[in-house]
């Protein structure tokens, strides 16, 4: 971590996940014991980066499975079940938001002062702003200091950038001459795993650049709980805040270089993220989020100068974060609910964002109720021996022959496999279940006549890729323990869905639309997630995939003040159910710890597939 070398990590330095293993080729170091390494591996030079004290110069090799690759950037075809909202559809939807950005540029030609008209420079500018419909304006001190020179340099023609904050207008920049055509902002999705940034042309409303990268905080833990714990360590909070700001700075720098724009023309940043990520971005202490009664520092955020928290942009660039609902329902969900338009719909809608947490919202234009399920990192490859994020070489799709138990796999980038990403893990478990390799409890049938089904070092497992065919030169397997991890994660989400529905005295059959949000959710195959019991079995036409609702909502807010107003309204309107204190949740959870469920009759199509 001190050398800022980016490798996989999920346990925040506890030495339990084994993801940060390296090979010491030369030199020696003090290794702390860890259950993630066998004695044979230690003898071969393997070490965990997080549990090894360097005592002399070393030559260290980072194997492929420990490296953080590049995030896959690909277009998904329309799924066989459900509707994927395409890029073209999103462009059309975003165009429907009112062109009323909170950031405005107006070119003014001011009358030169005379002995008869000798008011101050700021009063002169304010008067002209009023004539152009901009009332109640105030001005930032640095802008006021440079105002006399700017007005005269532009020969009394200037472009004024104004930030509309409710009923107040703040002058954040004054430039000589007419620069109204160069007007940009950045939308940011502050994700736990991935950070996405878009450069938006405010004049046209179009996206002119998009970049993404792993959240550098991953070196401190893969999920929000690990990071909250890390924040309590000495200088931990400062480190986490620095890492997320550094990730955003890198993305903005890449966008500026790629587009060729002058970064001085970026006037704003609109961000959305879960509650913990947003607290860490601001540098707020998040420790009380995980302690009953689970309270964040704030759920509503002020407009701030982005440079005040270390974002490397001009001093006039302001930042705003979407409001959160509660400790585990953040601004990313508020953003997604708004951009999906479920809060304006008559239809009873279920909104689900599946990641390290499963955030769920149920309702329509009249009411909204929400909850969050701690799914853990299993859906993103965490807690799985050969699990990995969806980078090049990750197995993302699997089919298993029902007669021979032989697999067909597809990897990201169509290269030799290095591990299994979340969608691949769901695929494998669904296929193993339908092939009767595992039973409803996720237990392997070791009587199956196939070399792929065997008893491994850590229990029963299925060999997905033989060593000779993998990029790791070792067998890539899915173990019974891996299956159990995913069953626990999917059970939490399914239980959360049922608790929400029960809380408003409705049934699954009453749901008219299910919206799947999030980068991970965008690539799910409904047939497979239903097979394992992650989602309820409902007609295909009810499912809609919207992709990254967080970044889309941030984009919409750059275009429209109405989105910002609606964000606060929706966040205040949304009722939050705390599942950790809900006595019925554990009953629902235990019932869902089966494939697809202990009451398999809830899944008639899965029964049909098992009987084929």
Tell me what the structure shows.
The protein has 612 residues and is an alpha/beta fold. The protein is globular and about 100 Å long. The mean pLDDT is 91.
How would you briefly describe this protein structure?
28% of the residues lie in helices and 24% in strands.
Number of helices: 15
Count of strand segments: 28
Largest sheet geometry = 7 strands, mixed
Radius of gyration from CA coordinates: 26 Å
Shape descriptor: globular
Helix percent reads 25-40%
Side by side, the strands of the main sheet go 6-27-26-17-18-19-28
Give the overall average pLDDT: 91
Helical/strand content category: alpha/beta
Spans of at least 5 consecutive residues whose pLDDT stays below 50 are none
Report the β-strand fraction as a percent range: 15-25%
Report how far the terminal alpha carbons are from each other. 52 Å
Topology:
Blueprint: E1 21-26, E2 29-31, H1 39-43, E3 46-48, E4 52-54, E5 59-61, E6 83-84, H2 87-95, E7 103-109, H3 121-131, E8 137-139, H4 141-153, E9 157-165, E10 168-176, E11 184-190, E12 194-201, E13 206-214, H5 224-231, H6 236-259, E14 266-273, H7 275-282, E15 304-305, E16 318-321, H8 331-340, E17 349-354, E18 358-363, E19 368-373, E20 394-400, E21 407-411, E22 419-420, H9 422-434, E23 453-456, E24 459-465, E25 476-479, H10 480-503, E26 513-517, H11 526-532, E27 543-547, H12 549-559, H13 561-573, E28 574-577, H14 585-591, H15 604-611
Parallel strand pairs: 6-27, 8-10, 11-14, 14-16, 17-26, 19-28, 20-22, 26-27
Antiparallel strand pairs: 1-3, 1-5, 2-4, 7-9, 9-10, 11-12, 12-13, 15-16, 17-18, 18-19, 20-21, 23-24, 24-25
Helix pairs in contact: 5-6, 6-7, 8-12, 8-13, 9-11, 10-14, 12-13
